Amino acid sequence: MLFLYASLILLTNTYIWLSANSQVAALKHINLIKIKNLLINVFICKNVYNIYILEKLLPRKTPVSFHYQFRGSFKFPKIFAAKMFLKSSVLFSLHAIIAAYDKAETSVVLGLYRFLIVDQLKLPWDNALQYCANMNMTLFTPNTEERTEKLSQFLTEINFVDKPNIGNDYIYWTSGKYDQNRKEFIWYSTGEQFNYTNWLPNMPDNWRDDEFCVEMGFREVGKWNDN
After folding, report:
1. S-S: 212 plus which of 44, 156, 178, 203, CB 3.0-4.6 Å?
2. 119 near 160, Cβ under 8 Å?
3. Are 39 and 19 in contact, with CB atoms under 8 Å apart?
4. Which fold has domain 87-226?
5. Distances in Å between the alpha carbon of 89 and those of 108, 166, 221?
6. CATH 3.10.100.10 domain locations along the chain
7. What band does 133 get if pLDDT is binned at 50, 70 and 90?
8. What was the pLDDT predicted at 182?
9. Phi first, then psi: what are they for 126, rounded to 5°?
10. Is the pTM of this model over 0.85?
């Protein structure tokens, strides 16, 4: 098994950048100026540490499992082998949830984001949102056509949506929710309004006056419905 050791600088807020840079200036072989804007989410006991890493310490082919030297050595989950990503999101099924971090087939990378497919724990929207927040993650935000199509294609490939018309087995939450104050749907993860939509025909309909959350996969893969 190959291991990689590197010195890491933990940055929790943007304003820390200058002070962090001055603090590490005296350290050998560490200079924040030389670090690419590569933010890595490291899962340690359900906590996430946002870490900037020196590019020059990474090999061209990142080993499947390796360690970082940062207040001790932490084993990096296999799911994050190869390239690293800026942020992570959870694709949350209405029916089931399991954060299978060690199974690559339960995640997909779209641009700078990695999405975890959680499909073995049934939760309502608010609880699903909190589940994600506990891991410093968010519900999926299908705010572009490209992202929606790529994710739908991936779910089809892993047979997550092989029978999309038989009920709720293949429906999953997004971060979309109706904001009562703004009187519009927004992406809860960012607070932004919808600039792209992919609603089913005649949706949203707010059936029974209690449908405020946006789900995907109802009746048709990738299409939106209010629930």
Report:
1. 178
2. yes
3. no
4. Mannose-Binding Protein A; Chain A (3.10.100)
5. 10, 26, 19
6. 87-226
7. confident
8. 92
9. -60, -40
10. no
